[in-house]
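User: Fold this one for me? It's Oxalate:formate antiporter.
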Amino acid sequence: MTIFVGAISLKNHTAGRNIIYIHMNHTARYILSSGIQFPDFMKGIPIKPSNLLLLKHKFEDGYFNMHTRLNFVTGDNIEQLLEDEVFRYGEFCWADFSDEEGLNELTGQELAELLYLGHIKSPLRPPFYRMLGNQFVYLTGEDGTFNKIYYKKWEHFFSMIGVVISHRVSPGKERTLFGRRKYRQAPFVPAEVMQLLSGQMREGVIFSIDKMVGDRLKIEIPIWIVGDFLDMDEMYEVYMEQSRRAPDGRLVLDRKAGEWQALLE
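Assistant: Here's what I get for Oxalate:formate antiporter.
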C-alpha cells in the first residue's frame, strides 16, 4: 500500500528543477511520478476523459450528483479546472466516467470503495468500474510533487509521457530565412519508444531535462535509474548523487529526421 502521509515534500526541488521521476508498478497498474502536473497529464493522454468524478478537490464550479453526494466535472468545464491552480488544492483525486447515468447505478459497496480510494490513495480492489467505464484514477496530495495514477491501458501512459517530454524539450524559437523567429515543437516521443524503457521505469527512473544537451542536429536527455521512493526529497538527493556519474541511458532526438531513440548503457 502506498502511504502518502509524510511522503510529500520537494517544494523547492522538482517544482524548481526540470526533472521527471517515474516509478511503474506494472502488476498493480499504477505510476508514481514527480514533475508531471494535472495539465501536463490532460494534455498528453490520447483519449480525453468525458467527465471527472471528484473524490478530493477544491474546485468550485463543478456539478453535484445526488446519488453519490460527490461533485463532478463535465467536458464543458474541464477547461476551467485546467486553468485553476490545482497544485494549490492539496489533495486532488478523481476517477473519470462516461455519463451520469453510470454514476447513479453505482452500488453502495462501489461508492464505499471510491471514498476509501480518495481517502487512503490505495484501492481495495482494481479501481476500474464497469458502471463508470473509467480509464484512469488520479490521486495526489500535492499535484506535480507526488502523484499516483492508475491506468487501465498502459499505452495511455506511454503516449502521455512522450507528449510531456516533447513539450519540456521543445527548442523554442528559431530564425527563419527572412530573419523572423518561429516556434518549433519537438515531435512527440512515440509510445513504442517510451515502452522500451519500461524495464527501467519499474526500477524507478529520472528523465533529466535539467541536464539535457543539444545542438542543431540532436537533443539528448540523460536518464538515471534511482530506485523506488515515497519520499521525494530522498529521491532528489539520490538523483543529485547519481547524476555525477554517466547516465544509465538517453532519449535522443535526431532533429533533422525528427525521430527519437531510446539508448541504454
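One thing worth pointing out: Residues 197 and 262 are 7 Å apart (CA to CA).
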